[in-house]
Design a protein that fits this description.
This protein has 431 residues and is mainly α. It has 20 helices and no strands. May act as a transporter of organic cations based on a proton efflux antiport mechanism. May play a role in the transport of chloroquine and quinidine-related compounds in kidney. Plays a role in the regulation of lipid metabolism.
């Protein structure tokens, strides 16, 4: 019985236990246990992937400086990585749809290993820029989202996806701390070697614990609503086709614009923390750890409970409204202590928006296209990273820190009014 046809949470649990023997076990009970095990292993892979990612983010500035790269060149380095992630997000999603979630996760981890290998060989600036190329397929979190999307019923999806934010918090804290300790005691290349070996371990974990086919058997065929599974991995026509499903374009627009001002602020945060807050490097590290802890608390204790008691549209409106309130607070903040208070609702709204929109969008398209949809969603952050340094730099230089808050307030008030007045025609697709 297809888990995608679940009409209630209880019915979804019963149907999940009857998933195909080939994928999830020889009996319903064993299948359910296997499904939960695969989801837990996916969380581990995502947490490790994010840990290695944040390790290299902390090491790259020092590596670039040791090779003689100035701040402008470092900005170009970050922009190139953002562009590669932007282009690769949808391609990675299409790959997951055509070859399966496990193959996609292995591709991401293999790209990560090559990425760290090239970094370890970067003895000059051109090689450092060349090491960014594997970033086009480094999408560990979207790969994990694809596994979870395939193995959960629609009523369970928002809460289960939300727990990936807990992995994000673990990655921030562990990656920042471990990367800093290793680079300080053993040199800047040691965290890079750890990332290389760690991604190889992730490949082994995925090969052993994640089944080759994560979708229920009844989802294997292509419905009349789905896009073609054959053809090129990148197609503008296919993207436009997905955006034409009821409600998809509306939710995606909210996803992009609601968090854009905060995204611009976070890109400029390293400069803001020094110039506006007057923080030292160590204090900035503590602030990032505080951010990571909040991330873990929100995703571990709040998101899943709210998702089980409130409709997704209600939570979408709530996150946009909280974002507007955060914008007002940012416009008025003057000290780092103000920011420590504001960041609590900011983390809540940021994670709730990401989780709910991902859940809504994957439900609105056929199961054969969830990977492509997740890939498009994953491109939102790289898009912000690409345009952020230029737009954020102009805002900060011309209008100050408060401009990010006012922009956040205006944009999200407009989106909140739009969500209240319009009825987004979302339809849950069935396999």
């Amino acid at each position: 019985v297809s888990i995608m046809n679940a009409k209630t949470s209880s019915a979804g649990e019963e149907e999940a236990s009857g998933m195909s023997n080939e994928t999830l076990g020889e009996s319903g009970c064993l299948g359910e246990a296997k499904r939960q095990q695969v989801i837990r292993v996916t969380y581990v892979i995502a947490a490790l992937d994010l840990t290695f990612l944040f390790m290299q983010m902390g090491v790259v500035p020092y590596l670039a400086k040791s090779l003689g790269l100035d701040s402008v060149g470092f900005g170009y380095l970050q922009t190139i990585f953002g562009v590669l992630q932007l282009v690769g997000g949808y391609i990675f999603g299409r790959f997951a749809d055509q070859f399966g979630a496990r193959a996609a996760l292995i591709l991401s981890c293999a790209s990560g290993s090559i990425f760290f290998l090239l970094m370890s060989l970067s003895i000059n600036i051109p090689l450092l820029f060349f090491s960014r190329l594997p970033g086009v397929f480094m999408h560990g979190v979207p790969g994990a989202q694809k596994v979870i999307t395939d193995m959960t019923t629609p009523p369970q999806r928002a809460g289960t996806l939300g727990k990936l934010g807990f992995c994000f918090g673990v990655g921030i804290i562990a990656g920042s701390v471990v990367g800093g300790v290793l680079s300080t005691k053993f040199g800047v290349y040691v965290p890079i070697y750890v990332g290389l070996v760690g991604n190889l371990i992730n490949i082994l974990i995925a090969m052993v614990w994640i089944p080759s086919q994560t979708k229920p058997k009844s989802d294997h065929h292509v419905t009349e609503h789905s896009t073609s599974q054959a053809g090129s991995l990148f197609s503008i026509r296919e993207i436009l086709h997905l955006m034409k499903f009821p409600g998809v374009m509306e939710v995606f627009i909210v996803k992009v614009f609601a968090g854009l001002p905060i995204g611009l602020f976070m890109i400029m945060f390293s400069i803001i923390s020094m110039d506006f807050f007057g923080l030292e490097a160590v204090e900035s590290g503590y602030l990032m750890s505080y951010f990571g802890v909040l991330q873990m608390v929100v995703q571990g204790l709040v998101t899943e409970k709210l998702a089980s008691h409130c409709s997704e549209m209600t939570l979408l409106r709530l996150s946009v409204f909280v974002f507007a309130s955060v914008g007002l607070g940012m416009a008025l903040m003057r000290t780092v202590w103000h920011y420590c208070i504001i960041v609590v609702p900011m983390v809540f709204a940021f994670n709730m928006l990401a989780t709910i929109t991902d859940s809504m969008l994957t439900k609105a398209v056929p199961s054969s296209n969830t990977g492509a949809m997740l890939g498009i969603c994953a491109s939102v952050k790289p898009l912000t990273q690409t345009v952020g340094p230029t737009v954020g730099g102009v805002l900060y230089k011309q209008f100050g820190v408060s401009s990010f808050g006012y922009l956040q307030l205006i944009v999200n008030l407009g989106l909140f009014v739009y969500l209240l007045k319009s009825k987004i025609p979302l339809e849950e697709m069935k396999s």
